[in-house]
Amino acid sequence: MSLEGSYKLLIHSAKQIVQVVKNGERVVVGKALNNVAVLEKEENSSGLSIVVSSDGLINDIGTDEEIHEKYKAAQFENKINATGKCILPGMDFCN
């Protein structure tokens, strides 16, 4: 199934994505910050991708191949090549 529509941003080819939460938690605080969720690029993959919706929220995260197949009919306002980079979406440390 290919998703159509317009999206704000596609970040692709990342080496690593720090998701922070693992099971849908809204925040991670205290000692839980020692075990944040991290996705690593697999050897047989060209990288990891993030799709950001028009309202600025993360719509999807997956391998480049999964995201390309799922969103091949979609339009993106911006595309960022993050080859070899680590992405920390939504990382916000407040005191």
UniProtKB/TrEMBL annotation:
Keywords: Hydrolase, Metal-binding. One of its GO terms (cellular component) is cytoplasm. InterPro entries: HutI, Metal-dep_hydrolase_composite. One of its GO terms (biological process) is L-histidine catabolic process to glutamate and formamide. Coiled coil: none annotated. GO terms for molecular function: imidazolonepropionase activity; metal ion binding. This is Putative imidazolonepropionase. It comes from Trichonephila clavata (Joro spider). The lineage of its organism: Eukaryota, Metazoa, Ecdysozoa, Arthropoda, Chelicerata. The gene is amdhd1_1.
